Amino acid sequence: MAFAHEFDYVKPRTLREVVKTLARYGTRARVLAGGTDLITLIAEDVVTPAVVVDIKGVPGLDKIEFKNGVLAIGALVTFSDLRDSTVVAKRFPVIREMTGWVASVGIRNRATMVGNICSAVPCCDSGPILLVYDAAVLVAGPSGKRKVPLRDWFLGPRKTVLKRGEIATGIVVALPKKKHGACFVKLRRYEGEDLAQASVTVLAYADNHYRISFGSVAPRPIRGEKIETLLESRSLSDELIQQAVRLVPGEIAPITDIRATKEYRMHMVGVMLERGLRTAVSRITGSGPAYGTSVI
Amino acid sequence: MTKRITVTLNNELRSLDVEPSDVLLDILRETLGVKSPKIGCERGDCGACTVLLDGKTVRTCLILAIEADGHEITTLEGLSRSGLTPVQQSLLKHNSFQCGFCAPGMVLSATELLGKNPTPSKDEVKEAISGNLCRCTGYEPIIDAVVAVGKKAGKRA
Question: Are A1 and B1 a contacting pair at CB < 8 A?
Answer without folding.
Answer: no
